[in-house]
From TrEMBL, chains A, B:
Coiled coil: none annotated. Signal peptide: none annotated. Pfam families: ADH_N_2, ADH_zinc_N. CDD domains: PGDH. This is NADP-dependent oxidoreductase. Residues 18-334 form the Enoyl reductase (ER) domain. InterPro entries: ADH-like_C (IPR013149), ADH_N_2 (IPR041694), ER (IPR020843), GroES-like_sf (IPR011032), MDR_fam (IPR045010), NAD(P)-bd_dom_sf (IPR036291). Keywords: Oxidoreductase. It comes from the Bacteria.
Length: 341, 341
C-alpha cells in the first residue's frame, strides 16, 4: 500500500459518456495530517447515479462541474486505514464522496467531514436503499407531489433506485401506482416484488396508448426520471390539478444537441398543472427524520430494492455507462474491496 | 327592434383564425320569459381575449368547446331592454357572457345569472381594468409566483391587458420588473406610463441576449403569456428557486402543428424551478376581495391601462384577429352601442 489509483476526467463527453473520457492515474498514497484529525480512507464501494452525467458539463449548476484532470466525483463507502482520531479508529466504515479513487483523505475541515456508517448497515445498503436515491424519492414524491390516497401515481424509470422507491412510497401512501420501465424482467420485478398496480414496458409497448387505457381519469402525480417523449406522453394524460416532479431526464443526458421539449405544455395551463424540479440536497436538514421513516418501511418489508454490484477498479468507467444503456438492475454499485479485507 | 344578428362558429380554424371561420345569422329577437325573471339584454360592448382561441378547439378543456353553429362565446356588457324583474329594470347595465350577438336572454337559471355593473363603471372599464384579465394577473402573479420585494419579475406579452396588470402589480409589490413586448410604441408605454424598470422589444431585440444583460443574477419570477421561444429564453435565465406562471401561449395558438417545447427543461431540475399553469375561474370565491384591492390601486393611479375599442357588429371577427397579429394596444374591445342610446 504505497500508491493510489484514480480515474480522472480526461475530456468532456459530447454524446454518450464512456471509458474514453477518463484516464487512469497512479500517484503516491495521500498522507493525512493526523494531528489535525484527518484520516486515510480506503474506498470499498462506489455508488453510480445518472445525475453524475450532469457534473461533466462545464456549466454552473447545483454542484460545480468536475474539472478536466480532477478525480471523478462519486458517492462512496470506505474504511479508515490510518488515523489518530479516537472517534474514527482504523476499521471505521465511512460514508462520503471519495470519488473514483482507491484512497482518499477526509478530516474535520473537509467539504464532507468523515461520517461513520450507522451500525448494522452494509456498504451496499448505505449506498442503495439507505442512500440519497431513496431520500430523493421521499422528498420529491411527498414534498413536491403531495400524493393523496386514491391518487393515480405514474413513475418513469420505475425500476431504477429512485423510481422503485418512489413507486413503493406512493403505494404505502395508498395511491394506485403505475411504473414505466424497460424490459419484461424489470416490469415483472415491479409487479411481483414492489407490488405496483400496473407497469408499462416502454421497449415493447406504446406509452401514450397504455396510459390512455390505464388512466381514463388521468394521472394525478407524475414523478419523472426520464424526460423527452415520456414526459410529453404523461402530460397528455394528466388530470386537472396534477403535480409533476422533475427529478431527472436520463433520456437526454447523452444527447449532443438538446432534444425538443414537450409540444403540449399548454395542457399545464388548461389543467392547472404544477411541474417542479428539485434537488435532494436542499432537504439536508430533514434527512435524518426521513431516513428514520424509510428505515421503518424497509424493516417492515414495505420497500424492496436491488443492488447491481460490479467489481474492480478498472471497470469503474464502464460501470457508469451501464446506467445509460439501461443494463443496471437496481442501484448501480461497484465493489473495490470488502470491509476488513 | 325585431331581429337579432349573431356570429356563429362556421368551421374550426386550422392555423390562423379569421372572419372566414364565422358566419353571420339573422334570426328573430329572442323572447325572455318575464314571469320567470328573465330579461332581454342588448349587447353594448364585447371583450376579446387570446384564450378564446382555445374555445374553438374540439377538445375537453376548462370550458366546453364552442360547437359548430353556436354563437361565439365572449364576455360582454349589455343593457336591459325588456324586464319585469324589479331588481333589473330596463336600462340596467349587465356584465355577462352574451357572446357575439346583438341581443341575449339571461335569467336566474342561466349559467351566468344577470349581474348588474357596479355603479360608476363604464362598460369599457368593466371589461378592461375591472375585468377578468386583471384578476388573472392578480392571482397568477400573487398566488402562483409569490413575488418578494427585490425580486426580478419578467412578463411576456407585457403590453397586453393581463401582462400590463401583472407588471404593475409586481412593481407595487416592490419588484424589479422587465416587460417583453412588440414594438417601440408599446415599449415606451410600458416604461413611461406603467413605470417598468426595463423593456425588451422582441421585434427588434434578441430576447436571450437582452435577458443576459438585464438579469445577471437571474429571473426570480416569470409570468408567461407567450410560450414558445420566449419561454425557452426565460428558462435559460431563471434564478435558483424561480417561479414560472403559465398563463397562456399566444405564440402557438394558431399553429397548425404544435411547435416543439423548450429544449432546456432540465434547468428546472438544476435550479429547482416551479412552472405552474392556472385558470382564473378557480379563484372565483376570491374575486370580490381581489377586485377591492385592484380598485384601490386603480383609484390611486398605480395601475394604468389602455382600451383598444373597435366598432360595429360586422367587425367582430376581424377584431378578434387583431389579438394574434399584435395590432391591439391594450385590452381589445368592440362597441356595438353606448348605454341609453
Amino acid at each position: 500500500m504505497t500508491s493510489n489509483r484514480q480515474w480522472l476526467l480526461k475530456e468532456r463527453p459530447s454524446g454518450m459518456v464512456g471509458p474514453e473520457h477518463f484516464s487512469l492515474q497512479e500517484s503516491a498514497l495521500p498522507e493525512p495530517d493526523l494531528d489535525r484529525g484527518e484520516v486515510l480512507i480506503k474506498t470499498l464501494y462506489l455508488g453510480f447515479d445518472p445525475a453524475m452525467r450532469g457534473w461533466l458539463i462545464d456549466e454552473p449548476s447545483y454542484l460545480p462541474p468536475v474539472q478536466i484532470g480532477e478525480v471523478m466525483r462519486a458517492s462512496s463507502v470506505g474504511e479508515v486505514v490510518s488515523s489518530s482520531n479516537p472517534d474514527l479508529p482504523p476499521g471505521t466504515l465511512i460514508q462520503g464522496m471519495a470519488g473514483w479513487q482507491e484512497y482518499s483523505i477526509a478530516g474535520p475541515d473537509s467539504f464532507i467531514p468523515p461520517q461513520p456508517l450507522p451500525a448494522g448497515l452494509t456498504p451496499a445498503m448505505a449506498l442503495s436503499v439507505f442512500g440519497t436515491t431513496t431520500l430523493t424519492a421521499y422528498f420529491g414524491l411527498l414534498d413536491i407531489c403531495e400524493p393523496q390516497p386514491g391518487d393515480t401515481v405514474l413513475v418513469s424509470g420505475a425500476a431504477g433506485a429512485t423510481g422503485s422507491a418512489v413507486a413503493q412510497i406512493a403505494r404505502i401512501k395508498g395511491c394506485r401506482v403505475i411504473g414505466i420501465a424497460g424490459g419484461a424482467e424489470k416490469c415483472a420485478w415491479l409487479l411481483d416484488t414492489c407490488r405496483l398496480d400496473a407497469v408499462i414496458d416502454y421497449k415493447s409497448e406504446n406509452i401514450d396508448q397504455r396510459l390512455a387505457e390505464l388512466c381514463p381519469d388521468g394521472i394525478n402525480v407524475f414523478f419523472d426520471n426520464v424526460g423527452g417523449d415520456t414526459l410529453e406522453a404523461a402530460i397528455t394524460h394528466m388530470a386537472d390539478f396534477g403535480r409533476i416532479a422533475l427529478c431527472g431526464g436520463i433520456s437526454g443526458y447523452n444527447d449532443v444537441e438538446p432534444a425538443p421539449g414537450p409540444r403540449n405544455l399548454m395542457i399545464l395551463v388548461q389543467r392547472r398543472i404544477k411541474m417542479q424540479g428539485f434537488i435532494v440536497i436542499d432537504y439536508m436538514d430533514r434527512f435524518e427524520a426521513a431516513m428514520g421513516e424509510i428505515a421503518e418501511w424497509v424493516m417492515a418489508g414495505e420497500i424492496a430494492w436491488r443492488e447491481d454490484i460490479q467489481h474492480g477498479f478498472d471497470n469503474i468507467p464502464a460501470t457508469f455507462q451501464r446506467l445509460f444503456s439501461g443494463q443496471n438492475t437496481g442501484k448501480q454499485l461497484l465493489a473495490l474491496a470488502e470491509p476488513g479485507a
